[in-house]
Amino acid sequence: MSPSPQPVTSLKPPPVDSDLILAAIAQVIRMAKAQGRSLEDVKTELLTDHNLLDPELRLLLSEIVTRAWEAWPTWEPQTRVAQL
C-alpha cells in the first residue's frame, strides 16, 4: 500500500515572523562583531546582489541593520538565539 500523497501546501515552510527576523539580524551583528568585521563590511555584503532580495529590500535591510548596529551597546534583543 503506497502512502497517500500530501497536498503541496503542507510542504511549505512556516511563515517568517518579525521575531525570527529580529533574531537573525541580532545573530548577524553578534557574529560580525565577534569576527572583528565593521558595519561597512556587513552593509557591503547586504547590498551585494545575490539574487535573493530586490534592490529596495536590500537597502531597507541595510538601514535596519545599521540602526541595530548603532544601538547595539544599549540594545540587546530579548529573543535568545541558539544558532540559526
Report the structural category: mainly alpha
Fraction in helix = 40-55%
Whole-number mean pLDDT: 81
Beta-strand percentage?
Answer: under 5%
Overview of this protein structure:
The chain is mainly alpha-helical. It is built from three helices and no strands. The C terminus is likely disordered. It has a domain of about 40 residues.
Which properties best describe this structure?
single chain; 84 residues; mainly alpha; 3 helices; elongated; disordered C terminus
Topology summary:
Layout: H1 18-34, H2 39-47, H3 55-71
Helix pairs in contact: 2-3
Short description:
By secondary structure, the chain is mainly α. The protein has helices spanning 18-34, 39-47, 55-71.
